[in-house]
């Protein structure tokens, strides 16, 4: 992949799930563990659980409530927080993400996490993986009331942290979010080649994808 123009970058904005952490935990939870536990708790078959859950997931995808544990706990009549604890052992750092974080912090860059994860999800992951020391701020889109897919998220972010989009790098594994950042004017954008370690590389469309974080810091 091409070298990053680090002299033109002051702020590094980083997603969490699928970017710094292996997306396997989230995919396994929402596609396997939750449907199974939903079926058990409601006394229905796994197939019936999936039939009930799939349209709900599709209806709310990309909206703030999709990422909200309170919303899903109420909607599904179960404690999503407790169910996530049951699979927390699957939470894992992506290869060399910590090496990358160390390097950009030492390089004097302003490093800020921006995640759509609900604060309870963020807390659960920070209990398992020590990410907080690398960051100036850990921002959840729930703090602003808009997901990263929404242009209003970016307006709120700039008002909050005062960053210059033209001198910022943003890395995320979700294409609609990268497009939203591009529309806002974020100049340096990277997708993630393999956000889920169990699923292989994904098509990142028009975006250059990072496969090995060590490649990004070679010229830092």
UniProtKB/TrEMBL annotation:
Entry keyword set: Hydrolase, Metal-binding
EC number(s) given by UniProt: 3.1.3.5
Enzyme class, spelled out: hydrolase
Gene Ontology MF terms in the entry: 5'-nucleotidase activity; metal ion binding; phosphoglycolate phosphatase activity
Keyword Membrane among UniProt keywords: no
Transmembrane segments: none
Name of the protein: GMP/IMP nucleotidase
Originating gene: yrfG
